[in-house]
Amino acid sequence: MINYLRMRMVGSEFKAWRESHSLTQNQLAERMKVTRTTIQNWEAMPGAVPTAVNMAASFLDSRLKQENSMQGPVTLIYSDGPMFVEPYGPRPRPATMQQEAYPSNVMALARVQALWGRDSFCNPFIIEKDGAPIWNTVELGRVANGTDTDAPSLINLLRKTAQSVRESAHLFVRSGARSMTPDATQQRQAEIQAQADRLDKIADAGLKAAVERDDEIEATFKCLRDLGTQAPNELVFSIHHALEIFSQSWAPRIEGPNFRP
Hints:
4 strands, 8% strand, 52% helix, 261 residues, alpha+beta
């Protein structure tokens, strides 16, 4: 894919950049704090968009990559010991760099959360194939302790899925030839919303509990399908990918709002 941000974008390139992140004009307008009409005007420009717009897009591009659970492939890099060496103390053994390849952002972040807090997990960062950084150590710290509420971590994905299910509870497949009565329709919506509440409760229990309740998460998704609806595929896949990484790693050992002992 062409990296439009390395050049001064014209209107059509600005539009192509927006579409590369699967953003609607309304969504981009909300992120850039402008109106949809403004986005339309920029995309219709035959010449270069304003410099400030190019700079804003460059800044936003980095964050959109971080929030994209399927962004990848990526490589998690960390050292198995502190990189800082005390000049007046005994010399420790040299720290060794570790590299772990993952198909997607969500899997790498799950691995970070699983390893966070261990003495053998220091100075982590995540890069793309071209070597460009996606996450630095400070940013990963906010993911690990739960203060980055937009990162595609397991807890955030569960809450995002619950919100999506709740907002679309009125959209479900009706079985049988007969139309549902208003009462039956309302009951079905309530049952769907109850599954959204179930996902929220799992998220509220904390990361360790959520990992241990993977069977309950899968049962919730099955129940939604039985009710004639389902959570967005990307969110479901992302949750499964995160749980897969946790199942292969040690139990999470982090402290923060998303951790319960």
